[in-house]
Amino acid sequence: MAKLTYRDAVSAALAQEMARDERVVLIGEDIRSGGVFKTTRTLFDTFGPDRVWDTPISEEAIIGAAMGAAMAGLRPVAEIMFADFYATCWDLVANEVAKARYMTGGQISLPLVIRGANGGGLGFGAQHSQSLENWAMCVPGLKIVAPSCAADMAGLLAAAIRDDDPVLVFEHKALLGTSEELGEVEHLVPMGSARTVRVGRDVTLVALAVTVGMCVQAADELAAAGIDVEVLDLRTLVPLDARALLESVRRTGRAVIVEENPGQLGWGAGIAAIIAEEAFDDLVAPLVRVSGGNIPLPVARELEQEARPSPQRVVAAVQDVMAARGRRPVAPSLS
Amino acid sequence: MSQSQDTLATDIATDLQLFEQMQFLRLFADKVDTLYRQGVTRGPAHLGQGQEAIAVGAASVLRRDDWSIATYRGHAHALSRGAPAAAVLKELLGRVGGICAGKGGSMHITSVEHGYVGSYAIVGAHLPVACGLAWASRIQRSERVTLCFFGDGAVNIGAFHEALNLAAVWALPVVFICENNGYMEYTPIADVIPVRRPAADRAPAYGLEPIAIDGNDVTAVRAAVGTAVDRARAGAGPSLVEAVTYRFGGHSCADPGDYRSPSEVTAAKARDPLLLTRTALVSAGVSDSELDAVRARLEADVQALATEALAAPVHDPVTAWSDMWSDGSASWRN
Questions:
Q1: Which run of H or of E encompasses B116?
Q2: Whole-model pTM?
Q3: Distances (CA, A) of A137 to A132, A238, A242, A268
Q4: Best residue of B106, B166, B176, B315 to probe chain A, by most A CBs closer than 10 Å
Q5: Which residues, in sequence order, are CB contacts of B166 under 8 Å at separation 6+?
Q6: Of B98, B118, B162, the CB nearest to A108
Q7: Considering only CB atoms, which chain A residues are within 8 Å of B150?
Q8: What angle separates helix B12-37 from helix B218-233, to the nearest 10 degrees?
Q9: Residue A334: pLDDT over 70
Q10: ipTM rounded to 2 decimals
């Protein structure tokens, strides 16, 4: 079986969908030469200039062009090099792309994907490290995909391209080099379906993208201490598999939500609200969130680590939940 | 001879048709203004009395399958592509049968079926979208051309620059038409640009010819836009046309526009596009009474539209949950 990296899973899914449907076209900065993260390697050689378009540094033009082309019958996949750059084109994403179908009474369909490198851990600093799924989660009309492994990267990106609604795909920079063996099958994972990464009895860890691995590592440690941990990878925030989330939490009676973004209004807050509103009576301990710090991400290794979730913080949080103590402050900046 | 040059062959019948369309737009806008003041429209309304020659002249050189896209001041652009006026008016009133099902209102009038892919209300945001429509034409090897209308105020927003640059670099079949009515909302455009002509003087920065025309002269609009459309269709890339005009009313119905002197407005009204076309028709031998009859007929039409729209039922609240996702659902979770 072939081993595929998360990075190559991106290009594999793009190649698969471009071969399958000639309406799929790519647009972004430096993508003909493979992109700064090498996620679009070989696609220009394979599919040529009509299918792979390099743009100026113009994020509004990129998103607007993808939107217009989608209106005209293509299925564009736009790359925003770093998710942080969404801030330069958020009008197009949040005001135009997200709302066009609704505000025209359904006259406009936008089958488009916007993908880009997301998240921290590599010392890229405050403007190139943010984990921004939660920005999109505030805007009805956007679907949100954040894969944690190569198989999901390939399968969910393919599903996003086939979807008739706008989808934002967040590719985690720290996962690009991870790999797994994939069969020679079509890559396709339906959106809106969470994945139980590890079955457990005592507590549900709710994770996404890079925090899935942190939770698995924590679960291994906790198993040695006799705590049986379930890890649920949400995979997509919109559509959200709330059914799987609630089923797991009702069964274990405990939940720790592990998110990379700042806790002050991360996606974990929305998940916590759903659990509190719909599974409160099944909880045997207070909810706990493990979140990124409410500070811009610093660069030096020790400082960045301080501001991000980690397996150790997840272990501590689970111990708190098992002791039904609620959350204990880890550092002033995180509280 | 291309189709648009062909349709440029001016004759009295064509001019009469253009006059009639402009007259209808004027009466329609006046009626919307009245309905706004009666409190029966929903939300703000941005009208374009005085600017009708641009919408009508430009639409007249298009093929049926060409795209056009415009701003929150978009009623004229929708109607001149053939959007049904009854459905537009019902949308403005928030009634069943509205062209956007009550979801868009005055600022988002859209009729995809007629090639009018929308009115966008964030200044400048739709210029990059126009690039995308035109980019698709290139990829699809289609002759379809995109017209993109925007106000003079849009030239100072980043999306304008990003779109013009991309369109020029990629030689996209798009015609950008700046409706320069002299004011960005309440502020004279001259106060906020370092050049004399907001669009034309910036064209050279994108390798484009500076084109400025009298936007109140429907024949001049047809000629300039027709040439630009022909160029785009032939693969010669984008154009930027500045059509100079004047907005008789305020920025929106809520704005009396009293930051302008009465003498300025009076002088502008002497160059009313309807008046110019009417004068040309009369000197070509059409009688005043014939033109008055056209107006009387259209007045009755507009009154009938208003009566029909006011009689339409209000929306069932449950329809707020439709038109959200492509599968018909409104749910983001299971």
A1: strand B116-120
A2: 0.95
A3: 9, 7, 14, 11
A4: B166
A5: A55, A56, A58, A61, A65, B128, B131, B172
A6: B118
A7: none
A8: 100
A9: no
A10: 0.95
